[in-house]
Every structure is written in structure tokens, then in C-alpha cells.
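C-type lectin domain-containing protein, Lymnaea stagnalis. C-alpha cells?
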Amino acid sequence: MFLKIIIYLILSLGAQVHLDVTPSEIKAGCTDVLTITCTFSKDTTSISYVSSVLLSHKQFSSNASYEDVASIFEYDNQVQTHSNQENITVSGQILEHSVGNLTVHWKTPTQNQSGDYKCMVHGIDQVGHSIVIFADANVSFSIPQTSDTDPKITELGARLDRLDAHWTDINNGLLARIGALEDNLQQVESILFTSNTTHQSHRYFLSRYSYRDIDLGMATCHQFGSHLLEIDDQREYDAIVSFLSGGHYFDGVFVSGSDARDEGHWSFQRTGNAMAFTPWAPNSPSDSERENCALLWRSTGWKMVDDPCYDNNLEVHVICEKSL
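C-alpha cells:
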């Protein structure tokens, strides 16, 4: 009687399979990367066609069994990992169903990665039988001694020193740039403004030039990181009047305040909030539909008056307000 038998051979002698492990010993906390590399080529005495490669691993234990780690198939050359660990990367290829490699990298390996490794190359021999050729290797594990950790500590110390020097350079560079920006800001301040004063937590800047258009004045304040003066109470007003009384001879200064949106109802342009404090001069405001902006007028003792917002032919400056 003839039996149809598919012969399955497992060979190790004469097979062109090599399994290399680097390093061969994991030292706890000191080994950065464990690399397992299986290389193979067609051996005319045993295997004729390579179809797949499988790398498996088992820990050192009497009852441990091999578990798949990674594999690759000739038909699509796609490497698959069978480990759910995040610190593993795999690569490999099979070229012309005859030569190739399968490599696994474990970052910061632990005792779990020590043990026996086996690389199994599946294929067909010259007769047509299924055949597996393999190679194995092992990785040991140890607790490092002082002689092992000292170089690591020295290396980490050197890396920290380099990082410290790097951040010091960055910090110094940033400080230099901040200093240059502050110098530029002071130059801009000296160009745009003639003097400044402080009241409580605010600083006030008086423009060097006059403005016929309040929008240009507000834009100047905005570019400087401030806003047109908003007078909130008597104490702030008194501080501004004292500031303006120090030898300034222009006609007046624009301050925040307008009734352009609603005639007779004055509010700040920036926020739209109603003006709670309005030190109007006698007979002001005039309620003219053309005079929709608030100014402090020198001839009235720096009382508030209403005047045109645009095409103002008088010498009107602005005061910008900035929080400290």
C-alpha cells in the first residue's frame, strides 16, 4: 500500500542560517538596545525556495515555550511583529525567495527579553518537500556591578553637562535678543513720545507729534502696545493734568471718548464702555454732530471739550496709556 506522505524536515547542520545577538548579555539599566538579527541564504544541499521566516523567543524556564516575536513572508515582504511591547522595532526582507534577513531591536531591554531565541526559515527543498532550517542563540541577564554602572553614570553626567552648556548658550542668546529688543523699544519710544509719567499701575506717554486724525493717534498707541488714554476717575485726571502742566504749549491732547455712535452718549472707543468720569469744561460738550471726540484743552486748564475727530487744524497731541 502506498501512502501519500508530505515529508516535513527540520535541519540545522549545513543550513545557511545565522542568528546574531548584540549584546549577548542584558545588564539591568545599562543596556540601551538589544539587536537580534537572522540572516539566511539558499543552500543548494537543503533548501531551494524560501517562503517565510519566523523569529521566536522563550525565557529561561523549565516550562517556558517559544513565543513568536516577528515574521516575514516572501509573497508580500511585509514584516509583522507579534509582540505588544512598545519598545520594539522590526525590519527585514526576502530577496528572490533565496536570501534576506529579519532584525528586531529592543530599546532598554529588561530581563523579559533574555532567554533563548530561534530563527526558523521555511521553504521547499529540491525534491519539493516542505523544509525548515533554523539557528538559535541565547541572551543572558545580569545585575550590573559598580564597574558596569560607573561608565554609564559618567556618560550621563557628560550628557547633562553638554545639555546644560547648550541651554546656557540658548539662554544667553535669548537674553541678548531681549536686550536688543528693549533697546529698540526705547529708541521707538524716544521717536514717538516726548515724555511719560506713572500713576498707580499705569504709565502714560505724551506723543512728540500732533495728529489731525484721531485714528492715527490710536494706531500709534496700538503699535506701542498701549491704548488711547481712558480717564476713569478724579485721581487719574489730576495726575494727567499735573503731567500736562509741566511746560507744554500745544493746544490740546486727544483722549478716549466719543459720541459718534450715539449723539450725546459718550463712551470709550476701545471698549465701548460708557465714560463714568467726564471733567467737561464750561459749555461742553457742544452736542454738535461734527464734534464727536474728547480732548483735554490747554486754554481751559486742561478741562475736557468735544472737537472734530478728523481734519483737525489745531495742534493736538495724544496720550497713550499702558499697564505696567
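The two ends are 104 Å apart (CA to CA).
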